[in-house]
Amino acid sequence: MTIEDSTPEDVTSVEPRGLVLVNTGDGKGKTTAALGTVLRAVGYGHRCLIVQFIKGSWMYGELKSIRRLEPEVEFHRMGKGFVGIVDDNLPRVEHEKAAREALAFAKEKLASGAYRLVLLDEIFVAVTLGLLAVSDVLDLLDARPAATTLILTGRGAPPEVIERADTVTEMREIKHAFRQGILAQRGVDF
Ligand code: ATP
Ligand code: MG
User: Fold this and answer.
1) Which end of the chain is more exposed for a tag (fewer CB within 10 A), N or C?
2) Looking at the domain assignment, is residue 92 inside a domain?
3) What residue's CA is closest to ligand 1, atom 22?
4) Ligand 1 pocket, 26 CB below 6 A?
C-alpha cells in the first residue's frame, strides 16, 4: 500500500480527538505553521475556519491561496488594523469592539461543531494589547467541542492558556532578515 492509498483511518483512531495547539514566541513561523496544518486538514476534506484577529498582520498572499481552498476553508478577517501604530487613527473603543465581535463570532462558530479545525490567528496579540482578557481565551477553550482542533497563534501566549493546551511551540528568533535591514518579502513574509 502506498501513502496515496492510505486513508485517515489507517493512521488515526476512529474517533477524532481535537487538540489545542499554541504557536507563540518572537520568531518567524507562527502563522505559516498554523496554515500548514490547515493545508494538511483540507487534504482529508476537513472543514476549517480561520479568524484573523489583528488585521494588517499580513496574510495577503495567504488570502488568495485560501480562496482556492474554499469551500472547505472559510476565512474571516475581523480586526480593525494595527493598533496604536502605523496609520491607526481609529479610537481605541473601535478596536475593542472589533475584538469583542471577533471573539463572539469565533466562539459561536467553534461551539457549533461544524469545523474540524479552527485557527484563531494573532489572538494573543489582541490579549497583549488589552483588547481581550485572558479569561476570554479560556472561555473559548471551554467552548471547544472534543473533536475540534483549535490553533491559537501570536506572541505572548498567556501562561494560563499554555497550561491548558496540548501542544505548545515557541518560535524563537535566532536570526531574522529584517534585522539586517532586509524588508519583508512578498511570498515569504506576506
Ligand atoms: P509568519 O506569518 O511569517 O509565520 P509569524 O506569524 O510568526 O510569521 P508575526 O508576529 O505574526 O509572525 O509577524 C508577521 C510578519 O512579521 C511576517 O512578515 C514575518 O516575516 C515578520 N516577522 C516574524 N517574526 C519576525 C521577527 N522576529 N523580526 C522581524 N519580523 C518578523
Ligand atoms: Mg502571525
Assistant:
1) N
2) yes
3) 28
4) yes
Ligand 1 touching residue 172 (CB < 6 A): no
CATH of the domain at 53: 3.40.50.300
Q: Are 45 and 116 in contact (CB under 8 A)?
A: no
Q: Is the CB of 178 under 6 A from ligand 1?
A: yes
Mutate-to-test residue for ligand 1 from 21, 24, 28, 77, highest number of ligand atoms within 8 A of CB: 28
Q: In what order do the strands lie in the sheet with 48-52?
A: 73-77, 48-52, 117-121, 149-153, 20-24, 167-170
Give per-residue pLDDT as tens, 38-80. 999 999 999 999 999 986 666 678 888 999 999 999 999 887 6
Q: Report the number of distinct structural domains present in the chain.
A: 1
- Direct distance between the N- and C-terminal alpha carbons of the chain, in angstroms, rounded to an integer: 39
